[in-house]
TrEMBL record:
SUPFAM superfamilies (UniProt xref): ALDH-like (SSF53720)
A molecular function (GO) term: aldehyde dehydrogenase (NAD+) activity
E.C. number(s) listed in UniProt: 1.2.1.3
Protein name: aldehyde dehydrogenase (NAD(+))
Family: Belongs to the aldehyde dehydrogenase family.
NADP among keywords: no
Segments forming domain Aldehyde dehydrogenase: 35-493
Species, as recorded: Mucilaginibacter pineti
Source domain of life: Bacteria
Active site: 265
PANTHER family referenced in this protein's UniProt entry, alphabetically: ALPHA-AMINOADIPIC SEMIALDEHYDE DEHYDROGENASE
Subunit structure as annotated in this protein's UniProt entry: Homotetramer.
Keywords noted in UniProt: NAD, Oxidoreductase
Matches recorded under InterPro entries: Ald_DH/histidinol_DH, Ald_DH_C, Ald_DH_CS_GLU, Ald_DH_N, Aldehyde_DH_dom, ALDH7A1-like
């Protein structure tokens, strides 16, 4: 294990860090606000960052617009080669970056390393994609005509990411966008800017080595003002935003008002249906990892268990005893399963949700609460808890970004599916069963309404190869694998006439 001081040095994190970077150039306006970044792990200050001003933002956009003009002319496989090198650089820095993710954000070291692995995986995916980016060809209704479609780069992609996956979300967006010929401006969460600065340095070394222009991959540190500038900016054709539903609605409205494109990855309220035909040991691992992994701060975290009445009591017992085994503490210590929440505000929301749940009639079978004591001095550590509830409770309908797990009983599979779908969000869902009929019913048009539906796997931990995202209040966007790349490009339909006449489509006659 590396020492944090060594890691900061290795990842080029200064005591005070500049507000923006267009590549080799880092800068900030005079008198910029300086904000300390403290770790939820031990409450210690890690470093400070300056916040960008509107003027800083405009400088970045001007540089990015300029860089786009050259980057789009670089052949896609050559762009892929740059991304391949970024993947290699991430491999070389996996331990250091994964550790800093764990220290700045609070997720377990295993999960920090796993997050960097997702970046490496999407880099590999994007490299292959750089020789594909396929369009279709069609048969024209007119003789000696040819029709096809092609995908062109879009321009500047604005990436607004959240604290919970502080670096991977950038890579899913930017590494695809880069092979697509776009340039990127990344506004990381103001809670986790240091890991973003580290990524900017890692990528920048690759750009520099390859003499790539300034402005292809940009970073801007700031608060929601910067997000608002991006959302309203017609120079930024696509905004990809990850975060709360409230933030997503604001971004969507601003981008929609100018008819821009947005890719939204918002809240989830993910459930696992545990059927009478489930392997209960497997279900236990899926449920507990889903609920306490990343301290319940994944958008794919398991929030609800919908359990068949015949196995309800037995499974509840298993859960209660498993929760008794969970070790909470410093996430860099590999013996611990669960680290802290991101900050004091998150702890307050968690405590408030527990109160609201109790007020609505929720019965806690594993009690929650804030942890006190020397090991928890940052004030961000809480106990994962479990409550028996009704699906319609207001608090159950709401995504609380914390390790609170709700238990709901069901009788028929139809009822279970209705409960699973009976929330405003639609990100991830799962069924645990060895019964083919019930699994297929869950996956059918009459089944889960989520963007992700798994069988005998929990709700979190999706692989990068599939399209990632969800329906309803989750926002409808898809990023990462499959054909998610298409949102980063503009589609053009081309019809070419190689005959000596000009026949019109639909048989229209127009003789001069
Ligand atoms: C998120 O929580 O914002 O499926 C993303 C998962 C991870 C991604 C989570 N691959 O849990």
């Amino acid at each position: 294990n590396l020492d944090i001081k060594d890691i900061l040095k290795r990842l080029h994190i200064n005591d005070i860090n500049e507000a923006f970077s267009t590549g080799s150039t880092w800068g900030s306006s005079n008198g910029a606000i300086v904000k300390d970044i403290t770790s939820p792990v031990d409450g210690q200050k890690i470093a400070a960052v300056k916040f960008a001003t509107e003027n800083d933002y405009n400088q970045v956009v001007v540089q990015a617009s300029k860089a786009f003009k050259t980057w789009r002319t670089t052949p896609a496989p050559k762009r892929g080669e740059i991304v391949r090198q970024i993947g290699e650089a991430l491999r070389a820095n996996k331990q250091a970056l994964g550790t800093l993710v764990s220290y700045e954000m609070g997720k377990s070291l295993q999960e920090g390393l796993g997050e960097v692995q997702e970046m490496i995986d999407i880099a590999d995916f994007a490299v292959g994609l750089s020789r594909q980016l396929y369009g279709l060809t069609m048969h024209s209704e007119r003789p000696e005509h040819r029709m096809y479609e092609q995908y062109h780069p879009l321009g500047i992609v604005g990436i607004i990411s959240a604290f919970n996956f502080p670096v991977a979300v950038w890579s899913w967006n930017s590494l695809l966008a880069l092979v697509c010929g776009d340039v990127c401006i990344w506004k990381p969460s103001e809670k986790t800017p240091l890991t973003a600065i580290a990524c900017q340095h890692i990528a920048q070394e690759v750009f520099k080595k390859n003499n790539i222009d300034e402005g292809v991959s940009n970073l801007i540190i700031g608060d929601r003002n910067i997000g608002e500038l991006m959302a309203a900016d017609t120079r930024v054709p696509l905004i990809s935003a990850t975060g709360s539903t409230r933030m997503g609605k604001a971004v969507s409205a601003a981008v929609g008002a100018r008819l821009g494109k947005s890719l939204l990855e918002l809240g989830g309220n993910n459930a696992i249906i545990i059927t009478e035909n489930a392997d209960l040991d497997m279900s236990l691992i899926g449920a507990v990892f889903g609920a306490v992994g990343t301290a319940g701060q994944r958008c794919t975290s398991t929030r609800r268990l919908i359990i068949h009445e015949s196995v309800y009591d037995a499974f509840k017992q298993k859960l209660v005893s498993a929760y008794g085994q969970i070790r909470i503490g410093n996430p860099l210590d590999e013996n611990n399963h669960m680290g802290p929440l991101i900050d004091a505000d998150a702890v307050a929301l968690y405590l408030d949700s527990i109160e609201k749940c109790k007020a609505e009639g929720g019965r806690f079978v594993v009690e929650g609460g804030k942890l006190e004591g020397a090991a928890y001095a940052s004030g961000c550590y809480v106990k994962p808890c479990i409550a028996e509830v009704e699906n319609h409770f207001k608090i159950v309908q709401h995504e609380t970004f914390a390790p609170i797990l709700y238990l709901i009983k069901y009788n028929t599979i139809e009822e279970a599916i209705d409960l699973q779908n009976g929330v405003p969000q639609g990100l991830s869902s799962a069924i645990m069963t060895n019964n083919l009929r019930e699994a297929e019913q869950f996956l059918s048009y009459a089944g889960s309404d989520c963007g992700i539906a798994n069988v005998n796997i929990g709700t979190s931990g999706a692989e990068v190869g599939g399209a990632f995202g969800g329906e309803k209040e989750t926002g409808g966007g898809r990023e990462s694998g499959s054909d998610a790349w298409k949102v980063y490009m503009r589609r053009q339909t081309n019809t070419i006439n190689y005959s000596k006449t000009l026949p019109l489509a639909q048989g229209i006659k127009f003789d001069l």
